[in-house]
Specification:
The structure is a homodimer.
Chain A lengths: L2 H12 L6 H11 L6 H7 L6 H13 L3 E6 L2 E6 L8 E5 L5 E4 L2 H13 L3 E12 L7
Parallel strand pairs in A: 3-5
Antiparallel strand pairs in A: 1-2, 3-4
Chain A binds a DNA duplex (30 and 30 nucleotides) through helix 2 and helix 4.
Chain lengths: ~140, ~140
DNA sequence: CTATAATTGCAACTGATTTGCAATTAATTA
DNA sequence: TAATTAATTGCAAATCAGTTGCAATTATAG
């Protein structure tokens, strides 16, 4: 039992949610992968969980802050929330579909400044850059 | 006939696309509104255009640079391209659903810097801030 | 004005997500 | 630990978004 799994259980329990095998499996899949689309995630469950349940579990995870949606272009993928990994954004390669995490505090404060200038109370934000990674620029 | 309509027709003609009433109507709806989801757009056509055609027209508009998708959270909406309005991003109010355009050159160059540091060739980017606008913070 | 090419509308389809409900599993209590 | 209760899951079926094929219509070019 590692640290992340303990945090997961604490979050579930403090929200009166059951610790089920299905929830643990999905958490572990998310832990071991880049952001996944719903279909990618469903595939990785290897039919051990019904698709409907995967949707419901992700909905639950998002509502209690275990997972979060990140928009990639105009689709979205699922990744663990900032509780389990540092807040970040992504570069997305249009060729190989790879995501590169970017951690950049300057960018964050820049966005805060803009929100303040507009008297806007920020709840969340999305930043993504789409293009070609260094590997894929050759071809 | 205003200036924008003339630009629209020029773009269509230079791409050997017909100038049809349906295309003009959709262009005018987009001109007069904030970014619209496909369903919002379809509703505003007031059944004068079949849903399938709306999808096809937007696809065409995007391919020739008349319109563009903007991701809002993990959905997307359609707005006129940078040809018809300056490049910008949005603050989105979670309460009233209003979008506030932000024009900020510093932000753009910041993103370019990040891409360069990662040897990444940018094709497009998305930035959105979700929260509560000044009007909606009271309630 | 006619011929040709592009576009639209309709019907039907596919894939993603949601809903209702019964069966199962986890948590609570004695 | 067993029995009870509450939460969760799986299944079937519905809904919603987006797509495809094709015939009917409309725009463009001559």
């Amino acid at each position: 039992m590692n640290r992340s799994n303990q945090i997961l259980k604490d979050i579930l329990k403090s929200n009166r949610l059951s610790v089920t095998n299905q929830r643990l499996l999905i958490f572990n899949i998310l832990s071991q992968n880049q952001p996944l689309s719903m279909n990618e995630l469903i595939k990785k469950t290897n039919s051990e969980i019904d698709r409907v349940s995967v949707y419901r579990i992700i909905e639950t995870f998002i509502s209690v802050g275990i997972a979060q949606k990140v928009s990639l272009g105009w689709k979205y993928k699922i990744e663990l929330s900032d509780t389990f990994q540092d807040h970040h954004h992504h570069l997305i390669c249009l060729a190989c579909n790879k995501t590169i995490a970017i951690h950049n505090q300057g960018l964050e404060s820049y966005l805060n400044k803009i929100a303040n200038e507009n008297n806007f109370e920020t709840k969340n934000h999305q930043i993504e850059i789409q293009g070609y990674c260094s590997d894929c620029q050759k071809s």
